[in-house]
Design goal:
globular, six-stranded mixed β-sheet, Arylsulfatase, C-terminal domain, Alkaline Phosphatase, subunit A, alpha+beta, eleven-stranded mixed β-sheet
């Protein structure tokens, strides 16, 4: 209705009501605005940063353009140093599984039961607290994507060590890097494409799901390259296959050209994948809130340029244990930070926990210390320390300036990185101090290993499936491994009924389990009867079946090799059901044997899988 010209628009009572209503509306609006900003402030104050950890396999200190290698380009990895911190003297172990153990626990690897790279010696003791345990307890989503190498059977499996998501393989090396058989949380699956690309894709999907769920994430990417077999996609290989290198190993006659070239190509593939993941962080808008860490697990796996340092993979000399350490965190680390102080893999658990304000409360005392003061520019009063490198009875000690090698010779590393001149007589006090540190480590740490009497755990209630690979078996009779390196091997030459494979195991829970066996067998050799038995305190149970379906695939892997390999080639093994076996909790002996062999051999064997049968 139109108002008359000159009429009053409001009476006093209505004006008062409207004014009160307006004030009330504004008070509610202001309260909501204040609440919103308080929520944002409290979230920013208490939110935990995300974590991404890259760990590469057999990549040397010199395999980055960051460190002066002009024969390759690693701009994405280099950017982590430009945008964050780089450590000049960071140390890992001489080989794979010990470094992984030290990262996971913050403790020297002999303390955690890790003394080998296969046959059970790579397993991390179950009473150790892992970095994933800590972050999972703090509310993080935790995932690992790649080569685990610290135990296969649950609870040694990643899913039993604090990682809710796992995709990759648990062995020390793998036989083919293109669409290989892998596992997802214990279930066997087929990989998609080149494995490093595949692992990165899975990690990025994990990160995206975490962000959507508004939960911080801990993503661990233990890559398996440039470990052999030397395989890499064409786009990377084509750049290097005819390349004339400018930099060479200190002993050029030891170089193997194809191995060298493929290693560099594999390192560029790693860099490409690092770049993809960093771009994903940008897309998810969590770059500023994410700590990205990059390091290697040991020295180079071949004779190639490594800054003139002595030693390579397997050595406790400088070249065998020196690794880059790059840490980027836009919210907490100043770009271009350079850290000259020595540090080691044992320091990473306490450091990441400290950066994220998570108590580093572990079941046992840590050997590592937090590097947060060095990363944040507050290193006043930082104490000198001695770091130990140990492998297979060889122990070396490093302080800020000197290295005492495993033969007791002292070297001034800044002046003599190639370890050519023994200066022990010139510096007797330092020599004695480092000798004492070595003796103490050997007596107090290395001695903790003792005898490994840990059986392989099977049928654990925490996992639906248990893998029992050929790698872990003890051989009886004429059976032969496909290769001297057991990690990805299978058994052949099964010609006699006396031949058998055994595993000392511990059944985690009584119950019924479906047994499947991954095998190959040509049509002409069909008809063998295979039996799996378990002996436990005098009791004996078994299950068996007739091999009726032929599976005779060719060896594969060589079609993707860029350089001759030392590891086993692989085959497309297929499963057959042996039946359901009822196991009782406790220790015993698992035995696989052929009761009848009508052909030239029973079969070739790769893997057993136990799956719990629901009641």
């Amino acid at each position: 209705m139109k108002k008359k010209k000159g009429s009053k628009t409001n009476n006093p009572f209505c004006t008062l009501v409207l004014a009160l209503d307006y004030c009330l509306f504004n008070m509610i609006l202001m309260r909501r605005i204040v609440s919103f900003f308080l929520l944002i402030f409290s979230w920013s104050l208490f939110a935990k940063p995300n974590i991404v950890v890259f760990l590469t396999d057999d990549q040397g200190w010199g395999d980055l353009s960051l460190n002066g290698n002009v024969d390759l380009s690693t701009p994405n990895i280099d950017s982590l140093a430009e945008d964050g911190a780089s450590f000049d003297s960071f140390y890992v172990c001489p080989v794979c599984s010990p470094t992984r153990a030290e990262f996971l626990t913050g403790r020297y690897h002999p303390r955690s039961g890790v003394y080998s790279t296969s046959a059970g010696g790579e397993r991390l003791d179950l009473d150790e607290t892992t970095i994933a345990d800590l972050f999972q307890a703090a509310g993080y989503r935790t995932g690992a994507f790649g080569k685990w190498h610290n135990g296969m059977q649950f609870p040694y499996h990643p899913n039993g060590r604090g990682f809710e998501e796992y995709y990759g393989f648990c062995s020390g090396h793998w036989g083919d890097y293109f669409s290989p058989p892998l596992e997802r949380n214990g279930k066997l699956v087929q990989g998609k494409g080149f494995c490093i690309d595949d692992f990165t894709n899975e990690a990025m999907a994990f990160m995206e799901k975490s962000v959507k769920a508004q939960k911080p994430f801990f993503a661990y990417l233990p890559y398996n390259t440039p470990h052999s077999p030397m395989q890499v996609p064409d786009r990377f290989w084509n750049k290097f296959k005819d390349k004339e290198l400018k930099l060479h190993h200190r002993d050029p006659h030891k170089e193997k050209r194809l191995h060298q070239l493929c290693a560099l190509a594999m390192c560029e593939n790693i860099d490409w994948n690092v770049g993809r993941l960093l771009a994903k962080l940008d897309k998810l808008k969590v770059t500023d809130d994410t700590i990205v860490l990059f390091f290697h697990d040991n020295g180079p796996n071949g004779s190639r340029w490594n800054g003139d340092m002595r030693g390579r993979k397997g050595s406790t000399d400088e070249g065998g244990v020196r690794s880059p350490l790059l840490v980027r965190w836009p919210k907490g680390i100043k770009p271009g930070t350079k850290v000259p102080q020595i540090a080691a893999a044992i320091d990473l658990l306490p450091t990441l926990a400290d950066l994220c304000d998570i108590p580093a409360k572990t079941a046992k005392k840590l050997d590592g210390i937090s590097l947060k003061p060095l990363l944040t520019g507050r290193q006043e009063g930082w104490s000198e320390r001695i770091l130990i490198s140990h492998w297979k009875g060889r122990t070396s000690a490093r302080n800020q300036r000197f290295r005492l090698d495993n033969k007791g010779k002292l070297y001034d590393i800044p002046e003599d990185p190639g370890q050519r001149i023994d200066v022990g007589r010139k510096h007797p006090k330092v020599n004695a101090e480092l000798l004492a540190a070595v003796k103490k480590f050997d007596n107090e740490v290395a001695s903790e290993l003792g005898t490994d009497d840990r059986p392989f755990v099977i049928a654990h209630p925490g996992a639906k499936r248990t893998q029992i690979p050929a790698r872990d078996a003890t051989v009886h009779g004429g059976l032969k491994r496909s290769n001297k390196f057991p990690n990805c091997s299978f058994f052949t030459n099964w010609t006699k009924t006396e031949d058998k494979l055994t595993w000392e195991v511990e059944v985690g829970a009584s119950g019924k389990y479906l047994v499947e066996m991954w095998y190959t067998c040509p049509k002409k050799d069909l008809g063998s009867v295979v039996q799996l038995s378990f002996t436990n305190k005098g009791s004996f149970v078994s299950v068996g079946n007739l091999v009726q379906q032929a599976n005779d695939p060719p060896l594969r892997g060589m079609e993707n090799d860029r350089s001759p390999r030392t590891e086993s080639y692989v085959k497309a093994f297929k499963p057959m059901k042996l039946g359901v076996i009822e196991l009782k909790k406790g220790k015993g002996m698992l035995t696989l044997q052929a009761l009848k062999i009508p052909g030239s051999q029973a079969l070739e064997f790769r893997l057993l899988m136990l799956t719990i049968v629901d009641n």
